[in-house]
Amino acid sequence: MASSNITLFKDLNIQMSDFILKGRVICLWRQPVNKRPLETDSIELILLDTQGYKIQATVLNQYVSEFKRYLRERLCLQISNAKLGSNNGNQKFCDNPYKVSFLADTKVTICEDIGDIKHFKLVSVKDIEHYKLPTDLSLGS
Predict the structure, then answer these.
(1) Which of 22, 27, 71, 138 is least surrounded by Cβ atoms within 10 Å, i.e. has the fewest?
(2) pTM of this prediction?
(3) For residue range 124-141, what is the model confidence (pLDDT) as tens digits?
(4) Please, are residues 24 and 36 in contact by the beta-carbon 8 Å criterion?
(5) Using an 8 Å Cβ cutoff, are 136 and 123 in contact?
């Protein structure tokens, strides 16, 4: 598809049903089933677009085998026929108000690299000491 058909993450809105996304997987992790930590509920991803905007995506366990070859950090993906919903979770890993869900008819292809995009949000030590952290900031342990 031509790049003019690509929707940037910042331009998404909840009314959209027909969109094509392009982004690099910058982080992914397995989300275990509640109270059964050895079972996988979903694979969660953070995608980065060419403008440096991020969005969280979810691949439910029932679809993991279908998309497994695409679930690798640093891969650049083109995604269509996915579902867009509100990101209402308790833990938000990026500042996008929406979240992408992969469905049975979601189309994913590996595409050309989007280049080196800066995506770190720097916070001063003073703000950390005074608990003035952005609400969308996740700290690793």
Answers:
(1) 138
(2) 0.79
(3) 677 666 666 565 555 443
(4) no
(5) no
